[in-house]
Design a protein that fits this description.
The chain has eight helices and four strands. The protein has 201 residues and is α+β, with helices and mostly antiparallel strands. It has a single domain, classed as NADH Oxidase, CATH 3.40.109.
């Protein structure tokens, strides 16, 4: 698929069929994700891939509660997603990389607090955006799920090493056409002239 067509067609899908996603398709999506930009070639982002209801249950059990699961109109459609990709980032990896000789002049190799912008968060976002576009290219739907609760329990259940933080999750699969329209779509978007500036703000 042509890039601009994939960008145009990308949207958040929140209701899925249970059909499994072919492993070769997942491999291609993940290979694209780990080729996304990474500051200093650090490679400080990683994915945990959960496939099928037994594995994806670990995500839902850790990050949602019974009340939300019982009352959310979107939960059944999201829960059917056959794949959950968990995007993790390591601040420690970036601090260590920028303590190396060729990056020492940046003075970022002492502590994560030395970074005015956490590159590990940006790199994780680049990787997730690549997943979203690769999903469109593969004819799949995807939805970004924020990291709001249950990160420690989830990490413990999956054996995530210390120092890795959950940036967010991506639900991935075949759309079932039963999506609930997001009310955010009714919010007027600012014109492009308010977001793109030439020469100066």
């Amino acid at each position: 698929m042509e890039l601009h067509e994939a960008i145009r067609r990308r949207s958040m899908v929140r209701s899925f069929r249970t059909d499994l996603v072919d492993r070769t398709v997942l491999d291609r999506i993940l290979e694209a994700a780990i080729r996304s930009p990474t500051a200093g070639n650090t490679g400080g982002t990683a994915f945990v891939t959960l496939c099928g209801p037994d594995e994806t249950a670990a995500y839902w059990d850790a990050t949602t509660d019974e009340v939300w699961r019982a009352t959310s109109a979107r939960y059944p459609g999201l829960r059917r997603a056959p794949v959950i990709l968990l995007a993790y980032a390591s601040a420690t990896a970036y601090v260590a990389r920028y303590a190396e000789d060729d990056k020492a002049d940046a003075h970022l190799g002492s502590d994560p607090d030395a970074w005015p912008i956490p590159y590990w968060t940006g790199d994780a976002a680049f990787a997730v955006m690549t997943v979203l576009l690769a999903a469109v290219d593969a004819g799949l739907g995807a939805c970004v799920l924020g990291n709001f609760r249950g990160e420690d329990a989830l990490g413990a259940s999956l054996g995530v090493p210390d120092g890795w933080r959950l940036f967010g999750a991506v639900a991935l699969g075949h759309p079932d056409g039963q999506d609930h329209r997001s009310p955010s779509l009714d919010r007027p978007s600012p014109p492009s002239s308010a977001r793109v500036h030439w020469g100066r703000w």
